[in-house]
Amino acid sequence: MTITKKAMLLSFLSGFLSLGLEVIWIRLFSFYGITLPQIFSLTLALFLLGIACGSLIGKNLCQSGKGNISYIGYAFILSAFFDCLAITMIMYFPLEGMLGMLGIFIISILFCALVRGIVFPIVHHLGAEQKKTGAAISNVYFANVLGCTISPILIGFYLLDIFTTQQTYLIIILITLITATFCVPTKWLKSAVSIFAVLVMMTTFILPEKVIHALAQKKDENGQDLKLEKLIENKHGFIQVYLNSNNDELVFGSNVYDGMLNTNLNHSRNGIERAYLLPIIAPHAKNILVVGLSTASWTRVLTSMPELESMTVIELNPGYPQLAGMYSEMHKFLQDKRVNLITDDGRRWLNKNPDRKFDFILMNTTFHWRNYATNLLSKEFLELTKSHLNPNGFIYFNTTSSFDAYYTSKDVFPYVYSYVNMSLASLSPIPEITKEQVLQGLEKLKWEDGSRVFNSFEELNKGANNILSKPFVPYHNIDFLKLGRPLEVITDSNMITEYKYGFFNQQ
Hints:
Elements: H1 3-32, H2 37-63, H3 69-92, H4 97-117, H5 119-127, H6 133-162, H7 165-181, H8 187-206, H9 211-215, E1 227-234, E2 237-243, E3 249-253, E4 256-260, H10 273-281, E5 287-291, H11 297-302, E6 310-315, H12 319-324, H13 328-335, E7 339-343, H14 346-352, E8 358-363, H15 379-386, E9 389-398, H16 403-412, E10 415-419, E11 422-426, H17 435-443, H18 457-468, E12 472-474
Parallel strand pairs: 5-6, 5-8, 6-7, 8-9
Antiparallel strand pairs: 1-2, 2-3, 3-4, 9-11, 10-11, 10-12
């Protein structure tokens, strides 16, 4: 094999491994950073800065006559060492507090990228050692770009459904070490690197999941540690289930609170009264759409509606149906013949099915400041949902207390109401809710086996009081003055809840 072909192969592997590592760092950092949109930008900036600094070192090596394959091998060994050190720090020596762990991430990403960046100028230097320099460098660069392209596709679409994030990270280290063994010149170093590679390979498949567990540690409002009961991981993200001191099972999606596994209105620490409001407002609903399954608690409540004929549930992450299947109460929802569970993006599915109409649409999916939240809160999305409603239909969605979300609702729908943190945007007015109406609505609710949801008048009355304890507020009575600024319409273009008024500037 000519030196140029070797340079192309090493350039391909360098790009493949570097971008693969970047994908994993973005995934880990985003998990710790509760999927804030700024995390991607910060990770990318750190990685590019590290690559730039590493390239400067590589340039100096080339100028000093050390720009050869041996030094590429040394760089790969050093890369593997720093990669192992970084993940070990996260798993076993996490610094207390947000700033401490943030510092670990910043330093780890920067140095891991820096060491890998050393290879980039060396492979181009090797590729230029012939007469047709321009063509050679172009081929080497093409190989690098090809590796950079294949890696995130392979990892993001396939490997993360087969291996955990931790395993994928260690596999990248393993490939790095295997590559290094073919580059280093001496037998003893080849043997040492081979032993290192074997240890990494054994660790990949023997070591239990520790990275996400270390990053997922949480405390309750009293400062007590929450017990991580379950962890579901796939290419779409992570789902965690914690057990608190009250034996409540709390569900987190990618490290952000999703809800509680609970359908008991009289045990409403998860605000389940918001779901029970729907049978009161729309007692005759026959065909409904739910965007986002989450814990399945809300959808389970809706199956008790007496006139329900069809419920379409759109959920992007197959981990949530998997989670629901682990609990007998929620599993009943999955077995309900009226329920059609579809794995897809909610917005994409609505665009693909323009003729489908529903009596109402429920969406209790995400915090307004999270990455991609605009896709489910914008004026464009609400207009899309409006086109899928039957006459007198409505959409009921979680604003997570974003006043701009209510304002956007009013820009699209003629009638808007607030209940707790939910926006009910309707095509027709909804009259004031009475105690008698609530009691009558709750009394009609039955599970699939015919048993009543409320077994006594005491339960029924307490549940009704829970619902009525939260005011159902017409739009003109919502107190927007405490916001302290003019309201703005959320659009696909401005993404104000993610950036302008996001996590770091919540107003």
